[in-house]
Amino acid sequence: MSVSLSWLERCPLAIAVIERSGSVLYWSSGAERLTGWKWEEVVGRKSGLELFSHRASAMGLFRQLRREGRVDGRILAIRGRDSRARNLALSVAPLFARGGEAAAYLTFAQEVAVDSALPSLVDGAGERSAIVEQLHQGILIEDADGYITYANQEASRLFGFPLAQLLGKHWRLLVPSSEREDVGRRLQSRREGQARVYETRIQRRDGAEIPVLVNARPQFKNARFSGVLSEFSDLGQVRGLERRLRRAEGAGARAIMLQALAHDLCNLLATVLPQAEMLAVKAAECEQTEFQEQAETIQSALRKGRVLVQQLADFRSQPDEAPAALNVATELRSVESLLTRVAGSHADFVLSVPEGEALWAKIHAVELQQILFNLVNNASFATRHQGRGHIELSLAHGKAANLGPALFLAVEDNGVGIDDKTLTRIFEPFVTSKSSAEGSGLGLFMVRKLTEERGGSINVRSISGRGSRFEITIPECPPPARPAVEEDGVNRLQPLSGRILVVEDEPELGVTMAQALAYLGHEATIVCTGQEAIARVLGSDVSYEAAIIDAGLPDIDGRDLKAQLERRCPEIKTMLCSGNPPRTAEQTLYLRKPFTLSELEENVQELLMAQASLVGPDGEEWG
Predict the structure, then answer these.
(1) Distance CA 549, CA 502 (A)
(2) How many Cβ atoms are within 10 Å of 395's Cβ, its own excluded?
(3) Any residues with CB less than 8 A from the CB of 384 and at least 6 apart, and which?
(4) Alpha carbon distance 260, 544 (integer Å)
(5) How far apart are CA 272 and CA 264, in angstroms?
(6) Which residues in 154-237 belong to E strands, given as ranges?
(7) Is residue 622 a contact partner of residue 613, using CB atoms and an 8 Å limit?
């Protein structure tokens, strides 16, 4: 087992053990990084009071400790080795001697900016337990004779003993007889100053034995061994986490493969769909009814495939920019068929969306899809052994406390429900009722994260054996402003035609685009690389009104090529072509693959009109 798994070795907090008299008994690597003081410069050589910038404040801290036994969220300045003062938020817990009195204090510290909002460590000071009590590792401190002087709550849970029954007991109580000799030898090496990470077994109060990873660090006072600080991690949980991380890495590799697959499918459909449309039109012109019907059947199937490929591209994308307003009602209807498949054949999936209403929220479509897919997938899992399952996704709007106008998304099922213990931690990472092969425990964690990032909240109600209801509340927003149109709604401009350069590295798709443009009345030239495009535009007597550029060229990024052409030849207007154009506020014209003939013509006309608007009918530049 790698040492890097140890919490103490990678903890960003500063950890120290300070004797009641003030002498420093233990100094972690985190404390070294924070203050600059090395372990050998501090342990057994300095008083805790010397390290604080204001001695009176430090003495006040120790008085508070003796009075209250514990301090959380106290802010004090410490003097680093470079003499620079650093403001620290402290959490201090007592270490008890066998006589029951506090003999030393376990201190956790984190640097904070006192002029900004204090971290959650400080919030609710006096109400929260010490940081050490919130760790997912068991912490024990033993004195030089092996008697336990401190244990945190996780150690109590791990060993199965109440804290009161751990303090003052010898470590042999927690180790099976078969392991005691080996553990004793390891602890003897601590007297020589050796810190070790090793695997062993512990014995719980109920007699059960479990494997653990132990990181044992010696403590010294006045250069003499005074005890051991040990961290215990449940190896079952550690190995389970490793399995989940390996699955996550595998999922990342599959996501890359999915990205490549979506790209290739997108180009394939973009090649075939316009051809099917042109075939159907030609068959109609020649009055070949049978061929026309066949072409229209192919065209219909390709359009369904187009929708699925675009949904796939949307789902794998991870936008970074702030979202624009999304019609949530329309989006739900568009993914209904996919959610029905996610629900599975064992469950009836019902979508309930108000008819005729456009309900808007500022959320990316991909984020909404991820939320819905996770919730419906969990509902499917919960209903798979319930006879005929029932899963309902509903959308409503109204007013919510602290949000005002809001949308309410709910996924309800009649499945097995969630037990009370799991329910309290359901949104924590790696918490799941599924087996390790069935789920990672990250789905609901991501749902909560995405929801909260968009200013919303999530709640769950569940009854064991009867089902669960997850309800997401997100702020509602006004619909986006509509662009102004002419009174009769008709564009009176005559269609424009032009000479267009197509930059596309897929030869078959390039040929299809050229044929489609010619069919629409344009003249098209095809090149396969960015360098060819630059040479064609700058080194030819032929002038181009516009260029359609694939965003993923092999030699030059499509965006870079667009910028180069516009800079070196300002009269040419450019448009990017991509299967997954970004959702940004940037006013860049994109032709999205796979496209229909009408979409191709609409985008080309917009591009040519932008070019024509710069030059008047007499060749004069317009203002």
Answers:
(1) 6
(2) 19
(3) 344, 346, 347, 415
(4) 32
(5) 13
(6) 196-203, 209-221, 224-234
(7) yes
